[in-house]
Amino acid sequence: MTTTVSSPVKAARQRGQSQLSVAWGQFRKNRLARFGGACLIVLYVMALFAPFIAPDGLSNYSTSNITKFHPPTPIHIRDPQTGSFTRPFVYQYTQQLNLDTFENEVRPTEQTCPIYLGARGDSYKLFGLFPSTVHLFGTGNPDCKVYLFGAETLGRDLFTRTMYASQISLTIGLGATILTTIIGLFVGAAAAYFGGIVDTLVMRLVEVLAAIPTLFLLILLRAIFPQNINPIFALYVVLLLLAFVNWGGLARVTRGQLLSVRELDFVSAAKSLGASDNRIMWRHLLPTMTTYTIVTLSLGIPAAILTESGLSFLGIGAVEPYVSWGSLLTQAQEGGFSSFTSRPWVLIPGFFIVFTVMCFQLLGDGLRDAFDPRKRQ
Questions:
Q1: For the chain, which terminal residue's Cβ has fewer other Cβ atoms within 10 angstroms, N or C?
Q2: Strands (E), the chain
Q3: What CA–CA distance (Å, rounded) separates 85 from 76?
Q4: What is the pLDDT of residues 245-269, one digit of tens each?
Q5: How far apart are CA 150 and CA 71, in angstroms?
Q6: Is the dihedral of CA 42, 47, 53, 59 positive or negative?
Q7: What is the DSSP letter of 374?
Q8: What confidence tier does 46 reach under pLDDT thresholds 50, 70, 90?
């Protein structure tokens, strides 16, 4: 008697396709997931080439007398005299005292500054290795700058700082999630495979971590380190803290799933053939978690980005001169509700946080559906 299995998985196997190739075919049919993935690629490329894309240096203060909340500078493409199309340019701005309100106001002058591609500017090291002074765009005039996103409270270009902040926010989110996944997978696999005292210790540790509020634990661990430590070292501390407090849930899920896999025939066959514990864990147990791991990564990275942004917003994450999207949002606190009315551009880093999380959610939903055999048609 033969059994008939009508599923796309069986058809794919008959054509010699692997599970990943079938999932990729299903993923390509999801337009929202492809949109999210494409946007994330663009964001990470922008973060990788941030020093080149940004027209200014990370900590470069305005060289003019404009030192606070410069508005975004409109880019013009028509000559003000003839009205004909010309090279893109911006007007130079100056700060003037309003005699009615006795407040300094930023106003444009009649001085124009052409925008050039490949303009020379502040020096930087691309990828930390290759020194250069060429930027994607700029005016070449330190007294006349292009403020695409405006400037923050110290007159520093917000677009430049947002590009540099993406390096930290995206890297910490990705790095912390990868570390969390690695720790959770191996600890959960060890608990499921060895059992006994190892299983008991791992599960008790997971319960202890789950009983402590995450935010309280992060603040407590961060408070152990002095405030004047190296900013780069502080970033690594934040990354390790995020990985340390988030691996428990994944370890519990991995343990539960591998407890059933441990009793299957192929694991027993590997044991009878004399395979070592390391080989069984690496070649037989952990590969069964591939699809779950991919989905967990795509959904865990945005959670880590939100956590890091929240910590930086509270002042215990990225510190000056380095910035993240969360620390840039602290600019919105100055002036209270006026940030929404008089200087809404300081909220732009928040848009990047929301947009990145949305793209990861779209990508994660698409991957989950692609790897779900019940939704393959």
A1: N
A2: 76-78, 85-98, 103-114, 116-126, 130-138
A3: 9
A4: 778 888 888 888 887 777 677 777 7
A5: 4
A6: positive
A7: G
A8: very high
DSSP 74: P
Token pair, residue 67, equals: 């030192």
Tokens 């990275």 — which residue?
A: 301
Task: Give residue 335's identity as a one-letter amino acid code.
Answer: G
Residue length, the chain? 377
| CB-count burial class (<10 Å; 0-12, 13-18, 19+) for 97 | exposed
Please give the Cα distance from 196 to 205 (Å, whole number).
15
What pLDDT, on the 0 to 100 scale, is given for residue 5?
42
Which has more confidence, 104 or 356?
356
Nearest-angstrom CA–CA distance, 245 and 50: 30
d(CA 140, CA 90): 12
Q: Residues 135-144: contacts with CB within 8 Å, 24+ apart?
A: 135/52, 135/53, 135/54, 135/55, 136/52, 136/53, 136/54, 136/55, 137/55, 138/55, 139/90, 139/113, 139/114, 139/115, 140/116, 141/113, 142/63, 143/63, 143/64, 143/92, 144/90, 144/92, 144/111, 144/113
